[in-house]
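Changelog entry

Holo records now carry the ligand SMILES as an explicit input line rather than a separate metadata file. Below, a converted record for pyridoxal-5'-phosphate, shown in the new format.
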Amino acid sequence: MNYIDLRSDTVTLPTDEMKKAMFSAELGDDVYAEDPTINKLQEKTAALFGKEAGLYVPSGSMSNQIALAINTDTGNEVIIENDAHVFYYETAAPSIISRVMLRTIPSKTGMMDIDDIKNAIRTSEYYLPKTKMICMENTHNRHCGAILDFNYLKEVKKIAIDNELTFHLDGARIWNACVATGIKPIEYGELFDTISVCLSKGMGAPVGSVLLGTKKDMEKALKWRKILGGGMRQAGILAAAGIYAIDNNFERLAEDHLNAKDFANLLQNIDGLKVDLAKVQTNMVFIDIDKSIKLSDFMESLKINGIKIGATGPNTLRAVFHLNISKEDALKSAEIIIDTIKKMLN
Ligand SMILES: Cc1ncc(COP(=O)(O)O)c(C=O)c1O
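Structure line, unchanged by the conversion:
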C-alpha cells in the first residue's frame, strides 16, 4: 500500500535527482579531511549561517550532544525548555556524554519566560552547579513546529552574554523558520555560539547534520565526533545529498507550510477534532481527538485507510508535511480523518 505518511518529515526519500547528485559526488577520506564534497558542504553551510566552520555529523542528536560536550564541563547546568528534543528524545545523553544537568523550564510556546531563564541562572556559591549554557530549539518540534520570536531570541542572547553563558541552537528545522519568517540563516547565525542544522528532516536528505561554530569549536567537535564513533570516510556520497537539499529543497519548504495550513483549515469545526490554527506556523499540525475515542484505534483505522500518523500525547495526533506529501495528499488525508472521526463518534 502506498501510504500518505504524516508521521514525520524524517520519512522523506531521496529523489532521483538527489540520488544522481550523490552518485556523481567527488569522494575522499574525511579522516584526512580529503573528502571534497564533505568539505564543500561544511563550508557552504558555515557561510550560509555566517559561522567560521562546520562539521558534518551523522545525526541531529550527535550534533546537539557534541555542542553540549564542547560548551560545558562535567557537572555544569544547561538551561533548556521542557519539551526540547535534547531533553525529551535524546535518551538522557547529556547525563552520559557531557555529564551535565539539564535545568528544564516549561513553556506554552517553546519560548521559556525571560524571568524564568534569569531566575534559573545559578549564583556562584560553591555548593551550586555552575550554569554554563542556554539551549534553544527553533522551530520547536513538540510545540507544533513553533517559530521562536527573533526579538525574544535577541533578549535571551543578551542574558547569555551578560552571564557568560554559551548559547546553542538546535536548528534541526531552522530552515522552516527562515522560510516562514523571511529571516536569513545568517541573521540566526549571529545570535548563537553553536548551531546544529539537520539536512535529514524537511530538507529531504537521507542522512546528516552540520554543527556550526568557530574554527576552535569545530576542532574540539572533531575530537568528540571521533569519540562518539561518528567519524566517517568517503561520506561525501551522503554530504552530496545535503548540498543538493540546500540548493533545491530549502525554498520549497513554503509548500509544506501551505499544505499544513490548508489541511488544518479543513479540520476546523469538525465534531470530535480540535486544531489550534494559531499554532500552525510551519509544517506541523497537532490534532486533539475527542477523549471518548481510543487514540490507538483511531490511528489504526487511519492506517487501514492509507494514512500513517504519529501521536504526541494521549489524545493528540501530529501531522507533519514534507517533500513527499503533495497538495492532493494533504487534502485527501484531511477528508479521511474527517470521515473516520464521524464513523467513530457514531
Ligand atoms: C528538533 C530536533 N532536534 C534534533 C533531532 C535529532 O535528529 P536525528 O534524528 O538526526 O538524531 C530531531 C529529530 O527529529 C528534532 O526534531
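Spot-checked after migration. The chain has two domains: 15-248, 252-345. The chain has 14 helices and 13 strands.
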